[in-house]
Input
Amino acid sequence: MTDQFTQNPPPELMSGDFSGAEEPFRLFSQWLRDAEAKEPNDPNAMAVASVDETGLPDVRMVLLKGFDEAGFVFYTNFESKKGVELLTSRKAALLFHWKSLRRQVRIRGLVEVVGDADADAYFASRARASRIGAWASKQSRPLESRFALEKAVAEYGLKHALGEVPRPPHWSGFRVVPSAIEFWHDRPFRLHDRIEFTREAPGRPWEKTRLYP
Output
């Protein structure tokens, strides 16, 4: 999945004035491109928040690997803590913070699993060592020693020494289908600009609201 939005955004989006934007994906596309030009590290980094079985929240950083009007996609081990929590609740929140641009984007929505073809294609694009690591790591579970991890990496490296490394059955992607997207831009004296887009369901029209800072 890739950014399917125009490479020639309207002048108001280029200027940093986003008050005229009428839908969020086009605006997010431009802000992400701005971040790719300005941020020194991982402009596609985002925090993913989930909740455990008690309702206590968890949050961690991951990398956005694609987005379009269907939602925002990232990949992980489904047996990890976040994998289990997201499969259970099917709800998540995302946060992008681009410090060099003084901007952030908050996203809330339902979670769905990406198709096998998309997961296979992305997994095949990863470095071979990363694919081996996906087999070797029992993500989020107790590790008895660093040697145990290195041993598992060596064993799976030998097992898949020839040919392609297949995608593990427990490794795939999540898509966060947004019901709310808020854009925040720093302004002097903490009089920040905040605009929130909300919709009742996927495919329904977006409603835009300006928020107090």
